[in-house]
Every structure is written in structure tokens, then in C-alpha cells.
Amino acid sequence: MIETTAVTQHLDQLHIPYTFFRHPGPVHSLEQAAAERGQQPEQVVRSILFRLASDDFLLVLVAGPRQIDWKALRRTLNQSRLTMAKPEEVLTVTGYEIGAVSPFGLPQPIRTLVDESVLAQAEVSIGSGVRSTTVILKTTDLMQGLGDVEVVQLG
Predict the structure, then answer these.
(1) What is the count of structural domains for the chain?
(2) Structural domain harbouring 44
(3) Rounded to whole angstroms, how far apart are CA atoms 69 and 94?
């Protein structure tokens, strides 16, 4: 059963090929998600929302288990203060719950940074907009769909 989400609608509009995947049950870890998808943890792209100011947000895409170096992120942004967005901010700004966030199908454009770790894989999976589901696509298609985004080193 193919499900339509804001993410799949956006990808369809861009003519970006993808595979929609539904997990058989709740996902409790990055490793479980990757295993069920037939992927390595590094192929699971996390979309993390940061708050820079009261109404200024930034989305960072990072590969699987890789941790974001906050100092590198602050330096990249030339910003002394930033925080991870609270769950209610994530839902309000992206329209998605934590665990389903995607850079596609957002209510309004959000500046997006892609950590270079994402580019190390030929195929990745990203949030589909709905928990316990994902969209699997080629990294080149992901980058084409994202358009003019900044690739940075944050790990």
C-alpha cells in the first residue's frame, strides 16, 4: 500500500524517483530502522531542526549515527547561540513530528544544511512525513530535489 504524504507529493511534483517503505511496527532505534530497510545506519538521514532566533529556524541533514559538532555548526552559521527546536516547534515549523521530519513538503522554505556525511552513501532514506514510514532514494536524487543547499562539514 503506497501512502501519500506531503513528502511524496513534493517528490512526485519534482519527478524525483523514490521507494516508499513502511516499517512493520514502531521504530525504536536508528539501527532497527536501518536493518528493517535493508540499509546501514549511515544511510538513514536524520533531519534536525535548530532554532537560531525566536522565529528563525535551520534544518540540518546528517547521516545516521554521526553527531553534529555544535562548535562547527555555530562557526558555519557565524552564530554564537542556537538550540535544538522543541518538539512542538518542530511540528509547527515543519508540519512533521520528530521521527518523521523531511526537508521536502515543508509549509514554508527553511534554510537547509547538508552534512557531507550524507553524500558518502549512494542511497539514503529520509523522513516521509509519517512516523514508521520512510522514503528511500538515491543521494543524487535527494540533492537534486533539495536544489541550492549548502554542503558543510559538521562532524
Answers:
(1) 1
(2) 6-152
(3) 23
Query: Contact at 8 Å (CB) between 10 and 104?
Result: yes
1 within a domain of the structure (yes/no): no
> Do 20 and 2 contact (CB within 8 A), yes or no?
yes
Q: pLDDT tens, 36-91?
A: 999 999 999 999 999 998 889 999 999 999 999 999 999 999 998 899 999 999 99
Using DSSP bridges, classify how beta strands 150-152 and 111-115 pair: parallel, antiparallel or unpaired: parallel
Q: Which residue is associated with the grid cell 523522513?
A: 127
Q: CA distances (Å), 80 to each of 59, 66, 71, 83, in order?
A: 17, 22, 9, 10
Whole-structure pTM value: 0.94
The tens digit of pLDDT for each residue in 86-96 reads 999 999 999 99
